[in-house]
Amino acid sequence: MHEILSTPLLRILLVGLVALAAPAGAMATTKVLDFDVFLDQKPIGTHRFEIRSDSAGGTQVESTADFEVRLLGIRAYRYRHRSSEQWQSGCLRSIEATTDDNGRHAAVAGKSHEHAFNLVRPQPRTVPTDCMMSYAYWDPARLLQQRELLNPQTGSLDAVRFELLGEESIRVRGVPVRTTHRRLLGEKLKLDLWYSASGEWLQLTSTTDSKRLLHYRLRLQ
Asked: What share of the chain is helix, strand, coil (3-state, %, to 5)?
């Protein structure tokens, strides 16, 4: 049953951040993105993001992904992903992530130090870099410049590229919105992203290994 939702998307899903206090004197703002998740138009779960930014350039993101597929009333697939990431000036400073992919458990943890990012899990590894980046769909200004991204489920560095597919209108919370449509490509990975004119992440789709459509839609408020 694992092939129902088997897709590289589920190995790079963003994450749940442990709340950390902003530096003294730094003003903080919080943005929430609540997505309903569908498989071939059938609701299977949710993914919630809380993005907290402060005036000192720090960003913390709390996110929770919960998917469940049922066939004839029987649970056929379950996915749970939690992660903790802390960012500073657009660079990933730390991550702690756990994933339950239909009973297969994985963990990723690491943090930056001087000119490297030190991974502790799944196994110790040092990656030389001055600025690590993961799949931060919520930060397109920086994400779209990347050619390599840290995978929060496997701890690997994924080679990626982006394509601009043009402008189009989509319905967001029942209202037509003009968006920019982009495609993220990697090894065995193809997913589509839609952003508003101001850079807000509005929608995501990906095709699973079993050729079914996984679809993120912003929840009606």
From this structure: 5, 60, 35
**Structure confidence by residue, pLDDT tens digits, 61-116:** 888 899 999 888 889 999 999 988 999 999 999 999 999 999 999 999 999 999 99
Is residue 23 within 8 Å of residue 56, measured between CB atoms? yes
CA-CA distances (angstroms) from residue 29 to 52, 115, 140, 153, 201? 6, 29, 18, 28, 17
Of 130, 162, 127, 159, whose CA–CA distance to 143 is shortest? 162
Q: What is the dihedral of CA 197, 200, 202, 207, to 10 degrees?
A: 100
Query: Cis peptide before 122, with omega less than 30 degrees from 0?
Result: yes
Extract long-range pairs of 20-29: CB within 8 Å, 24+ residues apart.
20/60, 20/86, 22/52, 22/54, 22/56, 22/58, 23/54, 23/56, 23/58, 26/54, 26/55, 26/56, 26/58, 27/54, 27/55, 28/52, 28/53, 28/54, 28/55, 29/53, 29/54
Length of the chain: 221
Taking residue 31's Cβ as centre, other Cβ atoms within 10 Å add up to: 12
Please name the residues in contact with 101: beta carbons below 8 A apart, sequence gap of 6 or more. 2, 10, 11, 79, 153
